[in-house]
Design goal:
rod-shaped; two-stranded antiparallel sheet; 3 helices; single chain
C-alpha cells in the first residue's frame, strides 16, 4: 500500500523539527567545549550536519504539506470523467454532448 502524500509530509515535518531541535540543543550543550569554527572536529561536523538535514527536512515537509493541502483541491478526478460521453471509434477522442461527427477527425459517429 502506497503511503499518502499528507502522511509523508507530516512525517518529514516531524523528523525535520526533531532533528533541528536536537541539533540546536546539542550545539548549545557542547558550546563550552567546542568553538564550531574552522577547523571543525568530527563532533562539530556531525552536529552541524544534523542541523542542516533537519532544516532541509522541515522545508521539504512544509512545501509538500502546502502542495497537498492546497494544490490537490483543484485536481479533477479522472475516474469521474471517464464514463461521460462517447468515444470516436476511429481516433479514440472523447466526445461530450450529442455530436454526430467527431471534432478531431470528422468521422460520423454511430448512434
Amino acid at each position: 500500500m502506497k503511503p499518502k502524500k499528507e502522511t509523508v509530509a507530516l512525517l518529514s515535518l516531524g523528523l525535520g523539527l526533531f532533528a533541528l531541535v536536537y541539533g540546536l540543543i546539542t550545539k548549545a550543550m557542547l558550546s563550552h567545549r567546542y568553538t564550531f569554527k574552522a577547523p571543525l572536529t568530527s563532533m562539530e561536523l556531525s552536529v552541524l550536519a544534523i542541523i542542516g538535514i533537519g532544516f532541509v527536512l522541515l522545508i521539504v515537509g512544509a512545501l509538500l504539506f502546502i502542495s497537498v493541502r492546497y494544490a490537490s483541491k483543484n485536481v479533477v478526478d479522472i475516474d469521474s470523467t471517464r464514463n461521460k460521453g462517447k468515444v470516436c471509434p476511429y481516433c479514440q477522442t472523447r466526445i461530450i454532448g450529442d455530436a454526430k461527427h467527431c471534432p478531431n477527425c470528422g468521422q460520423e459517429l454511430g448512434q
